[in-house]
Amino acid sequence: MTSDLYDAVIVGAGFGGIGAAIQLKRLGYDNLVILDREDDLGGTWHVNRYPGLAVDVPTTTYSYFFEPNPNWSRLFTPGPEIKRYADDVADKFDVRRHMRFNTVVEGARWDEDASVWRVTVADGETSIGSSRERSSLSARYLITATGFLSQPKVPDIPGVGDFAGKVIHTTAWDDEYPLEGRRVAVIGTGATAVQLIPELTKKVADLTVYQRTPIWVVPKIDLRFGERAKRLFARIPLTQRAIRWLTDSIYEVMINTAIIHHRHFRRLNIAAADLSKMHRFASIRDKELRRRLTPDYDFGCKRPTFSNGYYRAFTKPHVHLQTDGIERIEADGIVNADGSKTVIDTLILATGFDLWEANLPAIEVIGREGRNLGKWWRDTRFQAYQGVTMPYFPNYLSLASPFAFLGLNFFNTMEYQMRHMDRLFGELKRRGATTFEVTEDANTKYRDRMTELLGDSLWTIGNCATSRSYYFNPQGEPTLLRPMSTKTAIKEASQYPLSDYQIA
């Protein structure tokens, strides 16, 4: 077992880890390493390759605030372009050289005597009968940037392992597997399935979609950016920033009225649901089919999405919607809850991610006095000061934490987190200090304030019981979200009291 010493270890080479590395390098921390279990950077945009993959918010808002991209092809950009943007940013800001791929982080423990983090990793790809080589890294600071949606969820259905045909999870898409002429079943109707299903209908011979919870879908205004527009964005960046301001503003108004202040703006939420209702009516003439695709929870309880082809896909003669449930899976198909059987040769799992149980935290983190982060969250409540730090965990920032996610755009979350880092690490530099830890008092006050702010939100007072939304933790609290505007979050991240931290 070997041991190296770094200024910082960053877990995750997606946009969160790249942003954290850029911020640290700006502050003069260059001796850092970024660890990722995959074979390339990009996080979810490297792992996901399923047909129809695209960003589900306007791309004008989906970029770092300091690095706009003038080369987006569409308003809702396809996944491969997002991956190229990650590559370009990593190269431009010289963070790729800090990355170590095919490396699984098994856990991290705070060494109180040395005031460093000891991070255990397993390196290299494995073959049958072999094991990864374990090593230990030491770092002054630990940052986990594992993303909110990084641990695939496999449904616990009897017999799922007995199926004799091809099984594909959307996070491990098989580009070599031909779908033409196949009899396919898709389990899941979340945001991924909304993008995937219209593409599948163009290839497969027969498609059965298994829906447990309907999703709110609204029309997609997917503008194409021509070469003239791209040249304009490149030559006059202010034009692209103006479009970002517009799309950001629209989303901010939506989130801060109909969602966060739902008690006072309930009608806006109803209007959004009516838009989806009209979209279904325009796409589907069959009244019973429309009913089965209509959610029975409020718009916004579960992340809604955009599509012009999802509802229409169910009107095609070779596409079937199954809502009765699954009894079990057999070698040649799915036995439905009503006793009927769907014979298939391909099973696609669009079942999303295990956010709370497998991802918060994604690795075992042991802080001061042996406090286990995952156990502490579950024994008390899911909580994090400003969505990044916790008491008893010195020199540690978790970028995928409770109260971290802002609205619908990850990059707005990343912006306030980078500003939080700038203020915190800037103060460490100013004082010549090496350790920080948020105080229990500051953490408790922040947790209580977030709980109070959530009290007026849709997620607390709306009809969300049947939504099965990942916004809610296992205790039913919507603690994934930071209930405030991006402007407010950025202001707080830039001005929070430094006395909220013990710095030494």
Structure description:
The chain is of the alpha/beta class. It has 15 helices and 20 strands. Strands 1, 2, 3, 4, 5, 6, 17 and 18 form an 8-stranded mixed sheet that branches. A 5-stranded parallel sheet has the order 7-16-8-9-12, covered by helices on one side. Helix 1 (15-26) packs parallel to helix 12 and helix 6 packs across helix 7. The chain is globular. The model is unreliable at 126-130 (pLDDT under 50).
Topology:
Blueprint: E1 3-11, H1 15-26, E2 32-35, H2 44-47, H3 79-92, E3 99-100, E4 103-111, E5 116-123, E6 133-144, E7 166-169, E8 183-187, H4 191-200, E9 206-210, E10 217-218, H5 227-235, H6 237-259, H7 266-283, H8 287-292, E11 305-306, H9 310-313, E12 319-322, E13 326-330, E14 333-336, E15 341-343, E16 346-349, H10 355-359, E17 364-366, H11 373-379, E18 396-398, H12 410-431, E19 436-438, H13 440-454, H14 458-461, H15 486-495, E20 501-503
Parallel strand pairs: 1-2, 1-6, 2-3, 4-17, 6-18, 7-16, 8-9, 8-16, 9-12, 10-11
Antiparallel strand pairs: 4-5, 5-6, 13-14, 14-15, 19-20
Q: Any low-confidence stretches, pLDDT <50, length ≥5?
A: 126-130
Computed CA radius of gyration, to the nearest angstrom? 23 Å
Give me the secondary-structure category.
Answer: alpha/beta
Question: What's the assembly state of these chains?
Answer: single chain
Overall mean confidence score, pLDDT: 94
Helix content: 25-40%
Q: How many individual helices?
A: 15
Work out the strand percent: 15-25%
Distance between the termini: 31 Å
Number of strands: 20
Give the biggest beta sheet: 8 strands, mixed
Gross morphology is globular
